[in-house]
Each structure stands twice: as C-alpha cells, then as structure tokens.
Amino acid sequence: MKVDGTHYRSLWYDHDEAVLKIIDQRWLPHKFVVQAVPTLEDYAAAIKEMRVRGAPLIGATAAYGVAHQMGKDASDASLDHARDVLIQTRPTAINLKWALDRCQAHLAPLAPSDRATAALQLAHDISDEDVEINRMIGVHGLDLIRKIAADKADGEPVRILTHCNAGWIATVDWGTATSPMYQAHDAGIPVHIWVGETRPRNQGVLTAWELGHHGVPHTYLTDNAGGHLMQHGQVDMVLVGVDRATRQGDICNKIGTYLKALAAHDNDIPFYAALPSPTIDWTVRDGIAEIPIEERDHRETTHIWGRNDEGNVEQVQVSPDGTPAGNPAFDVTPARLVTGLITERGIAKANEEDMLRLFSEHREAV
Length: 366
Ligand SMILES: CSC[C@H]1O[C@H](OP(=O)(O)O)[C@H](O)[C@@H]1O
Description:
isomerase; IF-M1Pi; S-methyl-5-thioribose-1-phosphate isomerase activity; amino-acid biosynthesis; NagB/RpiA_transferase-like; alpha/beta
C-alpha cells in the first residue's frame, strides 16, 4: 500500500543488488527504515526479531531465504540447512512451515544447477500470490461490510474493531483483516476502525500507521477498551487476522484475540477472522491442544519502545526491577466464538464442513 503517496510492498527483491529488501517494522511508525537481507542468518534474525512479521510475510521472507541459500550452495545439504535455520525462528504461524515445505517440494527434485533460479522464481510467485489472495479476501470482506452498511443511516460508518496488525505491512500487500477495510473505504463506504494497541509489541501502532497513510478513519485505543465499546453499541463487527487456523475452525492469533472474541460473543457482535488459505493447518483440529504458542523474550513485556521528546526512538522499562514476567505471543479462539472465516475463495462458517465447501481438496480420504 502507500506510504506518503508512494506504493510499497513490505518486501521486494532488488535485482540490481541481487538482495532482498525489507521494511524493518521495529522502527515504525517513527522511522521508515529499509534494509537489505544479505545472509541466511540475517533472514533468520529478520523473522525472529520481527523486523518482518505477520504470518504471510514470514512465509514469503523464508522463501527468499531459501532462494538466497540456493544461490550460495544448491546442494541437498544446503537446502536442508536453510530449512533448519529458518523453521526454528518462530513456531506459531503455519505460513513459515507452509512456505518451507513448498520450497522443499519444488526444489528437491531439481538438479542442483537448476535450484537457484527456480527458488528465486518460487519466492517471487509466493509473494505475488499473497498479494492476489489478500486482494480477494478484501473483495469477499467488502461484501460483508456492504451488507452491514445497508442497515445504517446514510453516512453512518461501519464500526470495525480490530486487534494487532493484520495489515499490508504484515503481508506482502493489502493485508488480511485490513484488505476489506481498504476496499470498503475505497468503494466510498464509510468505515471507522477501532484499533487495539496490542500489548506488548503494540502492533496496533502499525495498523494505525497504515490506516492513517490510506486516509481510513480510525481511533487508537488500549486493548481493554474493546469490551467497553462493544457493551455500548459502538462496534458493528470485530475483524482480526490469523496465524494458524485448524480444520475445525479454531483460530490462533495475537494474544488478546480470545478475550475480544469472548466480549463479542457476550454482546452478540459478529466476530470474523480474515486469512489466506496457507494459514489453515489442515493437519490440526483442536487449536488449544495442538498449536504451539510462542513465548517471546520477557523484555518485550517489561519494556516498551517509543519516541522521546528529543525525537529519538528508545526503549524504557515499565515494570519494577526484577519483576518476573511472561510473554505468550498468541492465543486460540475456539470455533464456537468465530462467526466466519474470510478467505480468498469466500466466507466459510467456522466449521470443518463449511471450510471444506471452499477447500474440498483437503477433504480427508475416508
Ligand atoms: C496477516 S498477519 C496475521 C497475524 O500475524 C501477527 O503476528 P506477529 O505480529 O507476532 O507476527 C498477528 O498475530 C496477526 O494477526
């Protein structure tokens, strides 16, 4: 999407320099930092340190990491090494494993001499596919928003509460939860987005930054304000992203999503999750029991980043010295709390049968 009027993807391959370029999200919204990714270790660090983040973007980045490694050494051992280094960076978003599995399946059968070119093309393809998938998520989500708008007075906005950042900066472009928001705005349907800050990494800041650059009306709030807004009739729908969905419709997303789903259920507000099909893990049914939840560095909880009065971005401690902290980065919302899943093929109810209506190729052999 656009930053100060200039179109960007979240990552792109610089053919002149033969290197991947990323927007280092750790500095947003205060600094717009583009950096190259010169080594496999830098690819792993970029994912682990969340310089690039968001389930689909992590997958695309990993595909370019494999391509980089094939350009250095296209042997079977090197292909395995690239997977081993990248797969251990973050455990929850299934898109990382999905991309690495796709690279393995595509490259292993090839002669090593053909792998570098094929790997780079595959990374380009995965990125381009992500853009189109997310655009289609927006098309189907727009229909939903249009239906809600039809029941409102002229000019009255559709009020959408979102959590974390499932925006264009979390994907290659468009975003997942944000794609319907952008497309509704661009179609002239008034929307207002309630943006939860999303402690501890405050990815809501990224959503506010994105929406601001696209001119989409929004309000930045604490996470805990969401339930209050729902109780007071200020929310027409909740729309979030997903890091891993199960075949029965459970969704794993940023920590705090479950609490917002509970509040939505309690206030009879539709709760939708937007996800590309690579985010569905068809091998898993019970998300709570089976999805690994990343425990991140506890310093992310005890400290916070911001810009000081001198304009410098710095990290400060918010908790007492020595206070023990935790940092589970995701939680699982059971399917019973999910109204629907907005995918590139349409909207499914959060149950196996309706998901298979859209993705019948995953129906298990009896
Ligand atoms: C389309 S992004 C999906 C998902 O990924 C984010 O996780 P993280 O910021 O830790 O990479 C967040 O949970 C988004 O909802």
